[in-house]
Design goal:
By secondary structure, this protein is an alpha+beta fold. It has five helices and 13 strands.
Length: 350
Amino acid sequence: MPGGQGGGNGGNAGDGMPGGQGGDNAGNAGAAGSGGEGGAAGMGGAGAVGGNAGNAGAAGSGGEGGAAGMGGAGAVGGNGGNGGNGGTIDPPDPDPITLATFNIRVFGKTKREKPEIMSQLVSIVRSYDIVAIQEIKDASLETPGIFLDAINAAGGNTYDMRVSERTGQQPDDTSASDEQYAYYFDTTAVTARDDGQLFDDSTQDLFQREPFVAQFATVEGDFTFVLINVHTKPTEALAEIDALHDVIGWSQLAYPAEDDFIALGDFNAGCDYASPEELDLLDIRGDDYVWLIPDTADTNLAGRECAYDRIVGTEPVADHFTDVWGVDEAFVDAAVSDHWPVWVELTPTE
């Protein structure tokens, strides 16, 4: 009964360890003024000395020392309350996060008003913790928010987004450059550290569509990272991929405390636009970078196998990469897109 049993059961304390020094001071276990059953404290881990049984659980691996407190609510239990201190258990490592990139071809009013396509797009985004989207083309700027509403209307974890201004901000950029980038992320796994910004391309005019840079952090663990979302001009793919090295340098100045920078998107880094041999000549293929999606990946629905879509990190990102990656062949209808999402798995701890 709670707090009521007297302290006369100390004799069990000698059970502290097989073959051990059991029982000499077993009477101490029953010394609880009002706490009965204190003698059970001797069930501590291997190596526990049976004497002073109330604290026996503190030795060895800690075993069942916690049973000392059998006196019920309010019972002192013969010092048995210390039994749980026998050993420490490290918390489990946080689950990896999944990072994806997806060019949703000409994503605007026409596509978003097709329920069957929107349903597939929602399902794809909800498969990942954070997704970088390219080729949002909507002069009204409404599509990103409408898509977020559809993602959350599907139920489950709440998603948020960070969306860019329209790209193509330099005088020589054509109307084909007028796109938005977006990041959609599961708020139970990832948080945004800022609103993001387009790369300042006003001095060198390196891109038809300026990359979108933003910082994020995992909810669990201590992993922060900067994402650089890009859709290169196909006929200038090599030059724009090479210029990502400059964008990363610019981003390192913007985020001086950050080590992990990840460029991702539709690089057009394959087939007629960029061969592996040509890519190998670029700074961004040097030892300071790790390409998480290989040249052999097929990321598009066309008949040819082309690794257009990529995820590339600065060297420290390799410590987070689990070597798990994939191309999500979630659809076969080019009305959804002409690109498949590509994704990698990153652990929040090194």
